[in-house]
Write a structure and sequence with these properties.
Helices cover 38% and strands 23% of the residues. Strands 16-17-18-15-14-20-21 form a seven-stranded mixed sheet, with helices on both faces. A six-stranded mixed sheet has the order 11-10-9-12-13-23, with helices on both faces. A three-stranded antiparallel sheet has the order 1-4-3. The protein starts with a strand and ends in an 11-residue tail after the last strand.
Length: 502
């Protein structure tokens, strides 16, 4: 392991002007270092301009091994810290993130493509996750009960040791913070493998954790692609793996990690359905539906991608189109992250049009900044349930509209898709809302809310092909995932009478 550059320091940009940054390296044992064997690199593009703002040095199995060994050396001492002292590091991290919030937001914006307001919202949600971690010493107090005469049972939460998280490109700062607070407060040492497309935000997170007082080796980061992911799944020192990404890769990571006896919780893709009925509030529905399918350029697993229009809702569809057509690219909506993503999204629109759907709003020609990866809000109307734009995850600012005669048909279509991340209904009827909430196959549901992300302390996690493993990645489920229960039964005196436990 060759030590590399000193502290990378703050990101300088305070506008959307193109700003180069740095090279993404490994963070192992509290130091920046280069890969030990691979010489492979990859450009880190600013999607707004389609230009490289840095590069990432890609590692593999040897680098994962170094990170795992560094984590193992640090884990025992860290696990012996009192839980409140471990949480104090997160208190300091929170203060540092608040102090650097604009810098972090601009960094997310430049490497991911989000407009500044969306990037800042991501950082704020990450801060909320850290705040939940700060509360864990109060929530994780083990229960104790006298279960028989002189016999007490109690539960304590013990760390697993070395654990790892593999995170996606769409939320480069927030998703690592879905995992880190619970894992660290639980007493584990952590290895992060960020997306090789957007590794820069996590570089600053590493430095802020060190500044907050986290001991060297408790947080490590390995840059890389498939080789690094497979090495994490295979490494004997890594006891648990969290993953967020596509369903295809989530299945592979879950199977590989589980085959080695590791805990694995892998969140996959989505095809979220919105249901709108005639009694829905016009203004609320139009604003919310547009925000759901265009927010973050549609590159979020909670974005709406299918709108099931029940009965006579033409006035609502007209309002959705009118509102979406007023979105200004570059100001209200950022680019997608790669040219390949832009071309793939456009191909779905082309195929739907060729199959007889109507393009009510076309974003294929949008190009506000030369060289960037732009696609505007797109509404594909009069879709059939069997069309690829309806069945497959597009991951862009595109919504496919299926017109159906009744609520029963809408629920059947929603439940026929293999995913189960999110589903929402727009209605003024409590009965309609109740029927939808009771029957849709989705782990996160909304009433008049198109992005029903659970806020802390409620856990984030879907059903079916959107989640592999048990429980949620955030909230209390997250803490339990990164820890193991130790059950202690004790007796300190001989009792004069007896029960079956005596």
């Amino acid at each position: 392991m060759t030590p590399s550059a000193a502290a990378i320091g703050p990101f300088a940009a305070r506008s959307e002007d193109f700003t180069p940054f740095t090279t993404a390296r490994h963070w192992i044992g509290g130091k920046w270092c280069d890969p030990v064997s691979s010489r492979a690199t990859q450009e880190i593009a600013n999607p707004r301009y389609g230009r490289a703002m840095g590069e990432v040095l890609l590692g593999g199995a040897d680098d994962v091994d170094l990170a795992a060994k560094a984590a193992a050396r640090a884990a025992r001492a860290w696990g012996e810290w009192p839980i409140r002292e471990r949480a104090h590091v997160l208190y300091r991290l929170r203060e540092l993130m608040v102090r650097h919030i604009d810098e972090l937001a601009w960094l997310v914006s430049h490497e991911n493509g989000k407009v500044f307001g969306e990037a800042k919202a991501e950082v704020e949600k990450g801060i909320e996750c850290v705040e939940y971690g700060c509360s864990l010493p109060n929530l994780a107090a083990g229960n104790q009960l006298e279960v028989s005469r002189g016999v007490a049972c109690e539960v304590a939460y013990a760390p697993l040791g070395v654990v790892a998280g593999i995170t996606p490109f769409n939320f480069p700062l927030m998703v690592p913070l879905w995992m880190l607070p619970q894992a660290l407060v639980g007493g584990n040492a952590f290895i992060l493998k960020p997306s090789e497309r957007v590794p820069l935000s996590s570089l600053r997170l590493a430095e802020l954790l060190k500044e907050a007082g986290l001991p060297d080796g408790v947080f490590n980061m390995v840059q890389g692609g498939r080789d690094a992911v497979e090495a994490i799944c295979d490494h004997p020192l890594v006891k648990a793996v969290g993953f967020v990404g596509s369903t295809k890769v989530a299945k592979l990571v879950y199977a590989r990690a589980s085959a080695h006896g590791k805990r694995a919780l892998c969140l996959g893709g989505a095809k979220n359905h919105l249901i709108v009925v005639p009694d829905a509030d016009l203004d609320l529905s139009a604003e919310n539906i547009v925000a759901s399918f265009t927010g973050c350029a549609g590159q979020r697993c909670m974005a709406a991608s299918v709108l099931l229009a029940v009965g006579d809702v033409g006035h609502i569809l007209d309002a959705v189109r009118a509102r979406a057509s007023k979105i200004t690219l570059g100001k209200d909506l950022g680019p997608v992250t790669t040219k390949a993503a832009r071309d793939r999204i456009a191909a779905y629109i082309d195929a739907a049009e060729a199959s007889g759907a109507q393009i009510a709003l076309d974003g294929r020609t949008a190009n506000p900044v030369a060289g960037g990866y732009w696609i505007g809000p797109t509404i594909i109307d009069h879709c059939r349930p069997d069309m690829p734009c309806v069945r497959e995850e597009i991951f862009g600012p595109v919504i496919s509209v299926i017109r159906v005669p009744n609520l029963e048909t809408a629920i059947e279509i929603e439940n026929s898709n293999p995913y189960g991340n999110a589903s929402s209904v727009y209605t003024s009827s409590g009965d309609v809302a109740r029927r939808v909430m009771e029957r849709v196959e989705a782990g996160m549901c909304g009433v008049n809310i198109g992005v029903p992300v659970p806020r802390e302390p409620f856990g984030f996690g879907g059903w079916n092909d959107s989640c592999f493993g048990h429980g949620n990645i955030t909230g209390w489920d997250g803490y339990r995932f990164w820890t193991r229960q130790r059950k202690i039964t004790s007796k300190w005196a001989l009792q004069r009478d007896q029960t079956w436990m005596s």
